[in-house]
Every structure is written in structure tokens, then in C-alpha cells.
């Protein structure tokens, strides 16, 4: 999306914006985060890292690492990103870290409620929302280790909303 000059929103409940940027640069440059921090790479790689960093700075990639772990705060932040920057897509890292507004009998019901609210938010903002989710351990028991929708952790509702 960034390469296509699209506006991208990224809400992280797990990492700070600096760490996210570092990981993106590491991934695109094929230099480990540790080597990036140490400056342990060739001049040729330095040019590549600088170009990636420059491209990322001039892109329309907006990271929110504010504390918006509660679903209503997250919805407000997503709405602000849409209205302020016209984001075309939103990524959220990750579903199981989002807290429901009211406590439910169990976490599965909370996750189902959060999933439904994110689906409604996607419709309201008219953008796709990609919400990362943990997988259950069942995937490790299969020979091919390929995840299925049914492996999404904590709720069958996630599978329906996806």
C-alpha cells in the first residue's frame, strides 16, 4: 500500500512507533534489527537503509502507538486517522490486546464483540481493516503447519467477521 502511494494507518498495541519503523526498515533492507542498531553493515547497505528510511518518511504511513487498547479509544483513534489523513487501509496489532468496554462473562464473548465492532468500523469508515490475531496452538499439530481461519484464537466470531 505504501509503495502504491496509499495512505496507511497502523495502530499498535504491542510496540512503539520507533520499534515498528525499525522492523520495517530491517525487513525491507534485509538487515537484522540488531545490526541496524549497531550500524553493522556495508556502505552499500547503508545507502539502501537510507533510501528505505527516506521513502518511509515521505510516505503516507501513519503509526499510532498511543494507549488506545480499549475498543472505544481505538475506534476514536481510527476515526481520527481517517478524517485527518484519509487513510485507505488500517492495520491493527493485535486483536487479543484490545479490551472490551464492559466486562463479559468470558474472553471469547469479549473478542466476539470487539471483532463485530471492528467490522462495523470498517463499514463506517469505508476502508479495509486488517487486524492481526494470535493463532491457537492447534496449527502446530498439523503436518503442513498452514493456519486456517478456525485457528484464530479466542473466538469463532473472528472467523465469521473475517
From TrEMBL:
PROSITE patterns: SF4_HELICASE (PS51199)
UniProt KW rRNA-binding keyword: no
Keywords: ATP-binding, Helicase, Hydrolase, Nucleotide-binding, Plasmid
Molecular-function GO terms, alphabetical: ATP binding; DNA helicase activity
A Pfam family matched in the record: DnaB_C
Single GO biological process annotation from the record: DNA replication
Annotated InterPro entries: DNA_helicase_DnaB-like_C (IPR007694), P-loop_NTPase (IPR027417)
Matching SUPFAM superfamilies: P-loop containing nucleoside triphosphate hydrolases
Any one annotated GO CC term: cytosol
Annotated ranges, domain SF4 helicase: 1-162
Name of the protein described by the UniProt record: Helicase
Organism: Chlamydia pneumoniae
